[in-house]
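> example.struct
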């Protein structure tokens, strides 16, 4: 595919937002699609004399961003394709995005046999909060990686803990490991991990470890679970944390959508729970009939 060109770089930011949460929420909204069509045609991404096709428009937009303006979605989507779906195309591993993690938000966490956090620093980012972000993740996850661009490696290497892995998205948009992440499970802190867990996950863990959950007022449940969780030893708490995150994997219907959509769209439908009705309506919108 030839490299698309913009008439004016003022459209770069608007194009980077195409793959944001609004697209996930409004992909079945015809008005939103019309606005998207106008943006892609005005920015010279989509030929003005060509019949409109939603999926082709999104493909052209993604191709442009990969080559010209590598926003966070590009990095996330390449992680999804190259580190998750390439090796776990059977829904055996779980990818979570923008996950509350101690005092920070982890861009991506992949859970399989272990928990691995990925902090993305694109060409468009600063490194101001990087130290505190990585410190937060090390209290929760087994391994932590920074994913960045080649020119940032030297600066980041000097700035971060030697146990943090470094992965670059190279000029060909291939993810290359520069430094393997060390194992940091010994830093796991249940008092920090509990705030990432949902109440229903804590109740489920209590019933698995102890037995039937005691009857109590709804307002008392979280405090009860919090107190119980913090009395566990670190190994037990870590196992509960791992298992809870692993169970947040996509439903059968969501994974069907992820498996069949174009590679450029994978990250749109990963990391957050999507309903059966949403997935059923979105499949045909993307020209997928299964």
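> example.seq
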């Amino acid at each position: 595919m030839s490299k698309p060109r913009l008439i004016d770089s003022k459209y770069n930011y608007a194009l980077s937002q195409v793959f944001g949460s609004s697209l996930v929420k409004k992909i079945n909204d015809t008005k939103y699609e019309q606005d998207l069509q106008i943006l892609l045609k005005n920015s010279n991404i989509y030929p003005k004399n060509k019949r409109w096709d939603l999926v082709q428009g999104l493909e052209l937009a993604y191709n442009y961003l990969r080559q010209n303006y590598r926003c966070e979605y590009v990095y996330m989507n390449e992680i999804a394709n190259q580190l998750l779906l390439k090796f776990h195309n059977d829904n055996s591993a779980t990818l979570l995005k923008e996950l509350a993690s101690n005092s920070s938000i982890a861009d991506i966490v992949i859970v399989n046999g272990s928990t691995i956090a990925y902090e993305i620093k694109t060409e468009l980012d600063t490194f101001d909060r990087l130290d505190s972000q990585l410190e937060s993740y090390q209290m929760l996850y087994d391994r932590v990686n920074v994913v960045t661009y080649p020119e940032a490696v030297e600066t980041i290497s000097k700035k971060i803990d030697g146990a943090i892995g470094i992965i670059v998205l190279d000029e060909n948009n291939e993810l290359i490991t520069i430094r393997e992440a060390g194992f940091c499970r010994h830093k796991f802190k249940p008092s920090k991990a509990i705030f990432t867990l949902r109440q229903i996950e804590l109740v489920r863990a209590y019933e698995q470890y102890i037995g039937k959950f005691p009857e109590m007022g709804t307002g008392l449940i979280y405090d009860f679970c919090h107190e119980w969780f913090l009395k566990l030893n670190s190994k037990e708490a870590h196992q509960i944390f791992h298992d809870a995150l692993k169970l947040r994997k996509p439903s059968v219907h969501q994974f069907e959508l992820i498996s069949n959509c174009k590679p450029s769209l994978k990250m749109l439908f990963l990391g957050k729970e999507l309903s059966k009705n949403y997935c059923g309506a979105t499949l045909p919108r993307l020209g997928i009939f299964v």
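> remarks
The chain has three domains: 1-69, 75-186, 188-246.
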